[in-house]
């Protein structure tokens, strides 16, 4: 397969790139019509950049990098691969913020979605509309970054409702996983706030799908880990954007009190009471570094020493984080409402901190931390992350077995550790994303940064955590999953495996797409 593919691509490159006579017998005529051959690059820098990701752990070279100008280009390339007697693999690479090579295509072709973003900037990449059935929505290219969606929709006084903590991720990249953040408890993940998507399937077909139209493909691609098609457009739900945000953090020494308060604040009954939070997360404070990591610098410098004293005294401090949006209309009531919501919480007295920031500053809160690390050369280090969904019924066991035992004993944890609950009913089980089978579950994110020589120590910790959960019968599901064996994938999907496999047979029968996930391809 590899030899065949190198042969075909080198023909494409040498014939078209160097304007030698074309060897058209190798190519379907449409490929030449669409002029896609000159969009393939085998230059070293293109290959290098397609063979790395944010994780900085996996490295796999494609044979070529494809820079499409349109969804038709992508369809032509996939159709070409599909019709080859020896199909080659193809991976869309969004912003490459995977941590385990998920957007790589060893010996295949990487589709550089960022080049499409560059070409569609300021044109048809993000279009805001309204209709009587959906209200306001945005049609957004799969290659666009969420930060661009934010700015483009704000020009109309609107914004999406469900976010990720970090906005320099593509629409296609987050929709292939779920897209979660502090809004998820209320609105569901980003995949739940999409009305329609355009997809190029593994057969090279261009399909528009929604819950009413080609619904099987719609549900397959949302949370589908890139396995069924390349998303070229998503219709994203919008609402009126607030102007500002009241942003509060409270510290706890007792995990039971912390999780009880989190669960109370996200409870469905609480939300029916009309006054609700707009965002809820939580994290661990383990040491000095966790007061001011890349997720956000929040606490006043003058309070550092008394917070550190609490960490030293208790070993771990749990930080509950909430936000409430407001605008000119709600300005006069927001403080009162926040007071009502936060009344009776059991945080450590005197350890509540509040900020009042613009909506954009709040949503883009991670960016300043990123820039700081980038300037110190610390953003492009290995990231041996572990993200889990843990059922609510076992979260206390998780705290004692993982946070209070493994994490404290090993004492290597760097970077944010996130802990916050969400509601099952805000997810859609027909979608490919996998979550625990309980009404409420927690997301736990170990967002480690390591040195180039010691990332394995973090991986060992990750393995120990997974083994602990396995032995204790805590039925966790990985988010942004990474497995190396088929058996692990089958376990991961559980009762959804059969549907996932059948959808693969239907939409990508030749196993062309996103081989870096290692679900159907054993690279
Ligand atoms: P890539 O890494 O480029 O691709 C990811 C996967 O999706 C690959 O399999 C790829 O082939 C496939 N893919 C890419 N584009 C498309 C497309 N158009 N159609 C179909 N498949 C496609 N996630 C959250 O949910 N919440 C967070 O708060 C959050 N914060 C993060 C913060 C940082 C600093 C980082 C590095 C990651 C974070 N993530 C978060 C994880 C992130 O959502 C995923 O890694 C996401 O896949 C990254 O998007 P990307 O554009 O970089 O995708």
UniProtKB/TrEMBL annotation:
A GO MF label: FAD binding
Keywords: FAD, Flavoprotein, Oxidoreductase, Signal
Cited Pfam families: Cytokin-bind, FAD_binding_4
Signal peptide per UniProt: 1-19
Transmembrane domains' residue ranges: none
Chemical reaction(s) catalysed: N(6)-dimethylallyladenine + A + H2O = 3-methyl-2-butenal + adenine + AH2
GO biological process, one term: cytokinin metabolic process
Entry keyword annotation includes Amino-acid biosynthesis: no
FAD-binding PCMH-type domain boundaries: 58-241
Cofactor list: FAD
Entry EC number(s): 1.5.99.12
Enzyme class: oxidoreductase
Family the entry assigns: Belongs to the oxygen-dependent FAD-linked oxidoreductase family.
Protein name: cytokinin dehydrogenase
Species: Cephalotus follicularis (Albany pitcher plant)
């Amino acid at each position: 397969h590899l030899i065949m593919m190198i042969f075909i691509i080198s023909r494409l490159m040498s014939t078209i790139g160097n304007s030698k006579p074309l060897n058209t017998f190798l190519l379907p005529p449409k490929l030449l019509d669409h002029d896609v051959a000159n969009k393939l690059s085998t230059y070293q820098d293109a290959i290098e950049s397609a063979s790395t990701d944010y994780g900085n752990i996996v490295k796999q070279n494609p044979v070529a990098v494809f820079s499409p100008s349109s969804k038709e280009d992508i369809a032509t390339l996939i159709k070409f691969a599909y019709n080859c007697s020896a199909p080659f693999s193809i991976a869309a690479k969004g912003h490459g913020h995977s941590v385990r090579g998920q957007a790589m295509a060893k010996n295949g072709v990487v589709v550089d979605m960022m080049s499409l973003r560059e070409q569609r900037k300021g044109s048809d990449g993000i279009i805001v509309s309204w209709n009587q059935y959906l209200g306001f929505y945005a049609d957004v290219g799969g290659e666009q970054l969420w930060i661009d969606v934010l700015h483009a929709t704000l020009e109309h006084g609107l914004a999406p409702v469900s976010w990720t903590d970090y906005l320099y991720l593509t629409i296609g990249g987050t929709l292939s996983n779920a897209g979660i953040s502090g809004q998820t408890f209320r609105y569901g993940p980003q995949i739940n706030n999409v009305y329609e998507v355009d997809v190029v399937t593994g057969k090279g077909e261009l399909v528009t799908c929604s819950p009413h139209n080609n619904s099987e493909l719609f549900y397959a691609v949302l949370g589908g880990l890139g396995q069924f098609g390349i998303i070229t457009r998503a219709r994203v739900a919008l609402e009126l954007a607030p102007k500002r945000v009241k942003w509060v953090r409270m510290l706890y020494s007792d995990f039971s009190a912390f999780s009880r308060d989190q669960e109370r604040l996200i409870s469905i009954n609480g939300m029916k009471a009309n006054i609700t939070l707009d965002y809820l997360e939580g994290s661990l404070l383990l040491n000095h570094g966790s007061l001011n990591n890349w997720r956000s610098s929040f606490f006043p410098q003058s309070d550092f020493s008394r917070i550190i004293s609490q960490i030293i005294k208790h070993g771990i401090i749990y930080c509950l984080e909430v936000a409430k949006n407001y605008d000119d209309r709600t300005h006069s009531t927001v403080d009162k409402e926040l007071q009502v919501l936060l009344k009776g919480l059991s945080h450590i007295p005197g350890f509540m901190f509040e900020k009042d920031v613009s909506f954009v500053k709040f949503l883009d809160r991670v960016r300043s931390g990123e820039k700081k690390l980038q300037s110190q050369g610390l953003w492009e280090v290995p990231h041996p992350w572990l993200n889990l969904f843990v059922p609510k019924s076992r979260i206390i066991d998780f705290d004692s077995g993982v946070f209070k035992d493994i994490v404290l004993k090993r004492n290597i944890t760097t970077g944010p550790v996130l802990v916050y609950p969400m509601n099952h009913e805000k997810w859609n089980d027909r979608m490919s994303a996998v979550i625990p089978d309980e009404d409420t579950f927690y997301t736990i994110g170990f967002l480690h940064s390591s040195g180039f020589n010691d990332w394995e120590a973090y991986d060992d910790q990750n393995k120990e955590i997974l083994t602990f959960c396995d032995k204790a019968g805590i039925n966790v599901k990985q988010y942004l999953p990474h497995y190396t064996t088929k058996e692990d994938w089958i376990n991961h999907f559980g009762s959804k495996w059969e549907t996932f496999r059948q959808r693969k047979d239907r939409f990508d029968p030749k196993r062309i797409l996103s081989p870096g996930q290692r679900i159907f391809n054993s690279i």
